[in-house]
Amino acid sequence: MLGFGLSIEPQLWALIFVMIRVGAAFAAAPVFGAVGVPVTVRVTLAGAIGFLVLAAHPVTPPAQIFSTVTMLAVAAEALVGAALGFVLQIGFAAPMVAAEIIGGSMGLGFASAIDPQNGKSSPALGQFFSVMLTLLFLSVDGHLMLVDMIVRSYDAMPVGDAWMGADRLRAIAYFGGYTFLAGLLLALPVGFLLLSLNIVVGMISRAAPALNLFAIGLPASLAVGVLAIAIAFPAMGDYMLVIVRESLAATERLVFG
């Protein structure tokens, strides 16, 4: 007991219980879940948002810590939080698909770099697209929208009734197809031009077999690819904003149906 007649244990247990959903969302979401973000920062943010949740919603955690009901409730909270962040992560995978299409046509498939989001190797062109998508996500306050949806998720999926039904899980699976659609549309302007160039180079190779295709085709593909990306990047940036809005809308539909 504290000197003011209050017990800290129930309040601390309620805060930790709320932090499970918030922390799982941050671990799975882009930007927050990046390898470069220290764990202490994530825990601190989860605790700060947990205080906001407790102030706005009357959260009653399970009475007993070590029980089957508590374990199921913790699993449900972790599932909801991970689903919220995972939907955004699906949208952020679209630039990687576009980079594979464009990089393969340009001859940059061998160029790779360390992805700051997950710490793994990925195409260098994909890093460029991923950084631009992250900057656009932050510029439209997507991180604040994510926090707002996490807090409001306690209205739609309160504690004790947070198991995600088959319809919500099916919506996550269907939204996974949007990654390939968005990646293809993002790479369409540059990819179509590079495809046309490869067709022309192939026709030249058939007409003049003595020509060295690697000495002609690779520099031409690199030059045309870089020039096409520079020209088409304003339109690609606009479509990246569409990807961000679609990802946030899918997250909102996941919460509120």
Task: Characterise this structure.
- The chain is mainly alpha-helical and 257 residues long.
- The protein has one domain (8-256).
- The protein is 75% helix and 2% strand.
- The chain has helices at residues 8-28, 39-56, 68-91, 94-106, 124-139, 142-156, 166-207, 213-256; strands at residues 112-114, 121-123.
- It has a two-stranded antiparallel ribbon with strand order 1-2.
- Strand 1 and strand 2 (121-123) form a beta hairpin.
- The relative contact order is 0.13.
- Residues 1-6 have low confidence and may be disordered.
Distance between the termini: 43 Å
Which class best fits the helix and strand makeup? mainly alpha
Provide the residue-averaged pLDDT: 80
Radius of gyration: 24 Å
Q: Strand share of the residues? A: under 5%
Q: Quick one: biggest sheet? A: 2 strands, antiparallel
Summarize the structure.
The chain has 257 residues and is mainly α. Helices cover 75% and strands 2% of the residues. The chain has one domain.
Question: Which key features would you list for this structure?
Answer:
8 helices; two-stranded antiparallel sheet; 2 strands; mainly alpha; 257 residues; disordered N terminus
